[in-house]
Structures are given as C-alpha cells and as structure tokens.
Amino acid sequence: MASLNKMTIIGNLGADPEVRYLDGGAVVATFNVATTEKYTTRNGEKVEQTEWFRIELWNEQAKVAEKYLKKGNSVYVEGRLRTELWTDKEGKERTSLRVRANTMQLLGSPNSSQGQDEPQYEAPRQQAAPAQPVSAPTRQQPAAPQAAQPQRQQAAPARREPEPVPFESNSGDDDLPF
C-alpha cells in the first residue's frame, strides 16, 4: 500500500532562524512559519486564523537559512511531518509536531521592505505554454556576394488534434482484477 507524508507551507517567519552547529559537523536551523487564513462568517464577522509550524532544515539548507532568512520573510517550505516525544520539566510526556524540510525557497526580493500591512512577497509565477509549437530554425545558405535576397521564414505546421477513440463495451469481460 502506498503512503505519503508531505507538507507544503507558504507563510511568514515569526523570528530569525536559530542555527546550531553539531559535533559531527552537521548544521540544523529551526524557525517558526505562520500561515493566516482570512474569511467572513455568515453573520458578516471577519475572522483571521493563524497556524504556526515549527520548521527544521539541515546542513547546506540550514546555512542558507542562517544567511538569508529574517523575521517577516515570506518563505516556501516543503518536507515531512515528524512527531517528537519528549519529557517536560515536570516529568510529563509531551508530543510536538515538526516539519523536517527538504525544500526551502525565499519568496520575493531580498531587499523588500518589512513591517507593512500588505505582503511584500509574491510566489513565483509559472509561464504559460506557447499556443503553437515552435518550429526548428532552418539552415540558411550563405548569400551570394553579388545579390542579397531577402529570406522568407516558413510558417509553423498546423496543429492537428488526435482522433477520439471510440468506446467499446465488452459487457464486463475485461482483464481488470476488480
């Protein structure tokens, strides 16, 4: 049976990352990321709900976080959700959740101003695919020295849609095991 443990978070840092250099040479950076959901209830009341996520980055990504991430930065984080069991000062067993990130990307420009009400960062946009396929450039012959003739570009071939495949029912006699 397949399983998937994947978290994708886009939010703002609550504080500068805390970075630790471990004895074996490993580096770990931890920081909190807030996501905010805004909506209006049926009664017209505006509600703002914030969730906090504890993020953990290791080694090279931790070094990048130490260098570039600052409080208020907008960041994209992707990773796995981890459960940690620990004992508090009173001897009680506690559980906490942490995202062990394998991808982190700072959103927006590094010199954007902070502290304004509106977000200063915007997620990267994906470019739309071209409407028609681009034809390969044609090899041109060198022009004769005595007469320069204008070159004509060939039009791209028309795009042809595939023919639909007719549906044939074989009254339930198929090779599928379910």
Q: Your description of this structure?
A:
- The protein is mainly beta and 178 residues long.
- It is 6% helix and 38% strand.
- The protein contains one helix and six strands; from the N terminus they run E-E-E-E-H-E-E.
- The chain has one helix at 59-68, and strands at 7-13, 18-21, 27-40, 46-58, 74-87, 93-107.
- It has a five-stranded mixed β-barrel with strand order 1-3-4-6-5.
- The chain is extended, with a radius of gyration of 28 Å.
- The two termini are 16 Å apart.
- 11% of the residues are buried.
Features:
178 residues, five-stranded mixed β-barrel, 6% helix, 6 strands, single chain, mainly beta
Please summarize what this structure is.
The protein is mostly beta strands and 178 residues long.
Largest sheet: 5 strands, mixed, barrel
Strand fraction: 35-45%
**Category from helices, strands and their pairing:** mainly beta
**What is the CA-CA span between the terminal residues?**
16 Å
- Poorly predicted runs: 113-138
Count the beta strands: 6
**Secondary-structure element string:** EEEEHEE
Give Rg in angstroms.
Answer: 28 Å
